[in-house]
Known about the structure:
- The structure is a single chain.
- By secondary structure, this protein is an all-alpha fold.
- Helix 4 runs antiparallel to helix 7, helix 5 packs across helix 6 (about 120-130) and helix 9 packs antiparallel against helix 10 (about 180-205).
- The two termini are about 15 Å apart.
- The chain has 21 helices and no strands.
- It has helices spanning about 1-30, 35-55, 55-75, 75-100, 105-110, 120-130, 135-150, 155-160, 160-175, 180-205, 220-255, 260-295, 295-325, 325-335, 340-355, 360-370, 380-400, 405-430, 435-460, 460-465, 475-500.
- It is found in: Cell inner membrane; Cell membrane.
- Keywords: Cell inner membrane, Cell membrane, Cell shape, Cell wall biogenesis/degradation, Membrane, Peptidoglycan synthesis, Transmembrane, Transmembrane helix, Transport.
- This is Probable lipid II flippase MurJ.
- Belongs to the MurJ/MviN family.
Amino acid sequence: MFRKILSVGGWTLVSRLTGFIRDVVLAAVMGIGPVADAFFVAFRIPNHFRAIFGEGAFNNAFLPAYAQVLETGGEQPARSFASRITTLMLIVQIALLVVAFMGMPWVVRLLAPGFSDEPAKFELAVTLTRITFPYLLFITVVTIYSAILNAHDRFWAAAAAPILLNVAMIAGLALVFLFPNAGYAVAWGVTVSGALQLAMVWWDARRIGAAPGLERPRIDAPMKRFFKALGPAVIGSAGVQLAIFADTIIASFLPTGSVSSLYYADRLYQLPLGVIGIAAGTVLLPEMSRRIAAGDEAGAYAAQNRTVGLTLALAAPFLVAFMVMPELIMSALFQRGAFDAAAAERAGAVLAAYGLGLPAAVLIRSAVSSFYARSDTATPLIASLTAVGVNVVVKILLMRTYGVVGLALGTAIGVWVNLGLLFVLAYRRGWTAPNRTLGRTCLAIAAASLLLGVFAWFAPAPLARWTALLPAWRNEILLALLGAAGALIYGGVLLAGLKGMGVRLARR
Length: 508
């Protein structure tokens, strides 16, 4: 299972690295001005709907149902089930696309009401969102194919597909001279990437004979199970997206550049979340689903504990970096062109606030597997909506004092509430069973993180005196040196701690 997690994480890492290059180009070309704010709203809107109707709710309802049909009935019934679901999703997405095109000014006014005070920015956001919205249709079908591939233990195509989004957006920016401004160029890149991603996962599914077609929907037992799980999952995903909507809505009232600062900080925050947390959850859900369907509860718990330990071990260095040196990270990665020192300072403060919630955020996908593997989507819904309520209230309370940083703090508090509720509810039902090995692993991770934090706090000053003598790339080299040395310190202390506590790094 670790190999699968590392495979998904490896491709996701490539995706995040190309995404970083994309964001560096975006920052240099657009900075944090009105065009950037308009584009990021246009980019977020279809992604919000995708998370509600696509990979968030759909995957959690579809994958266990598909895996059960595949396990009990074989490939032909599973392909028929997937074909009927694909047909239904296409009908829904086409209808949503038509409605959205007609009502796009109201959609933008609802999600970014502060833009109404700046007509030029509002009109640009409406136009760019009409360009990016078809991306939702493509990526919803991509989600179906990705879930099918995951159920067949094929992970690389689904994990690698987002790389095409980054490549297409960079290509759009390279052709910016053909468009009215950079916002138009990158918006078209988003939509083109949806078609490219669909082609990739369709090709891989077709290779193994699992690609669904179009089939007239009919209701049978697997379809009933799917819809029973889908309803709460949609509401739960919608609840999470409401919290993110709140960021966009509130930030639209804050000074120009607030939406962009949230975006750049969130991109770095999403790096460990995507590479580690989502990769672990992607592999763990089908693993637990299969084991529970086979009656192997102990095996499911063991898989979950190993995944949690690995997730925390990989995420801890990011937590230390985000909390101790966020401004250096932003300066080294983005401060060039239109992205100046003031923008780096503001985005760095947002990144530190996001970092407070990173441990909980990377563990949520592993925690919800306890419920989704048993086709229980209602309990995560309750936990999610409760956390969303806390999240939004905290944002409103903090925004007046802390501005855009208060929005990130609200997000951090909300994810901790969500994780806490999921763990308590799963533990009370006997659906999760942390063991001593996991506890010893956490102690070793804490010790290694503490020493890494001490190094990250004291080492930058003397190293900066040396890098200040360099003619260029001072912050970039300083960050690279700190990263390399920190990785050696953390890795060495962690391995020594695990060995000292008797934790085996490999299973027999």
